[in-house]
Amino acid sequence: MAEIPADRLADAARALMLAGRWAQAAGLLEAAVPAGDAERAVLAVADAEVAVDEDFWARTKRGAGAAERARLAVAGDPALSFEAEFLTLKHDYAAELMGPDGQPRFGPEGRDGQVLDDLAARAARLRGAAPDLRHAAAATFYAGLIEDNLRGDSAAGQSLFARALAEAERAGDDLVISEALRHLGYHAGEAGHADQARQMWERSTELRQRAGAVPYVLSQQLLLAGLALDTGDRDAARVLAGQVRGWARAVGIGLLESGAAGIEAACAQAGPPSA
User: Could you count the other beta carbons within 10 Å of the beta carbon of residue 19?
Assistant: First the structure.
């Protein structure tokens, strides 16, 4: 039987995860036979990463248990302990973001302030404990999400997104760069700077494509479709939304599929195709 190092298996599982192939990623990790506690910890963190990602996109419920198992498996390894704690933060942030209907809800209304304080404190601690700049950038970005999306403090959120962007650029982390650009672009659009938003979102899309991150690409294309609709380019909006809807259905991401269908419906209500 072939023997493959645990870190190679973890990398392969993450590549499948980014492609939206969560079941295959989980199956690969489940089939692995770790050679000791060190490999068991690596595989547990990879499994938690896959589960947390699938929870977010496909609304499954495996992330909390997988993250807890990873936290238990990595005791004594500072780098893997950071990863496990960060994945728990990601899961808890997403659980707080999503409303009872499975749709994201923004702002502090109806939230427990102590829960938000705890999330913000955990993000700050993780940033201080980050083993390198790449991990620090990810923690900074999530601190921005907590401030912007949950607390409703857009100024604090934008400041943290800008800091995360600078850190991720220095670290060469394409996904965190793309995430920061996504959120900074949203605020640029809200401020009336549609061209700046488009440029940020197009770069974000390109980085996600380069990483092979299918759900992330689709979510970014959905924003570009909405921007096209808002600026009067219904042809572009219709084409982009149709592509997102088809891919989202194939991958199994209902949130993106319904969002794309909504844009298509808005294009149809607006009348004949634009010139």
Answer: 16
What is the amino acid identity at position 36?
G
Q: Are 175 and 212 a contacting pair, CB within 8 Å?
A: no
Taking the CB of residue 12, how many other CB atoms lie within 10 A of it? 16
Given a cut of 80, whether residue 274 has pLDDT beyond it is: no
pTM over 0.90: yes
CA distance 23 to 20: 9
Q: Where are the domains of the chain?
A: 1-97, 113-201, 216-270
Across 237-263, average pLDDT? 95
Alpha carbon 254 to its chain's center: 16
| Cβ within 8 Å of residue 184, ≥6 positions away | 158, 161, 162, 165, 200
The CB density around residue 172, as the number of other CB atoms within 10 Å, is 11
> Are 56 and 93 contacting, i.e. CB atoms less than 8 angstroms apart?
no
Q: What is the largest CA-CA distance in the chain?
A: 64
d(CA 159, CA 154) in angstroms, rounded, equals 8
The residue whose two tokens read 């705890």 is 118
How does pLDDT run across 43-66, given as a tens digit for each residue? 999 999 999 999 999 999 999 999
The C-alpha atoms of residue 47 and residue 44 are separated, in whole angstroms, by 5
Q: Is the pLDDT of residue 273 over 60?
A: no
- Mean pLDDT score, 222-234: 95
Alpha-carbon distance 214 to 20, whole Å?
A: 6
- The answer on pLDDT for 152 being more than 70 is yes
d(CA 40, CA 43): 5
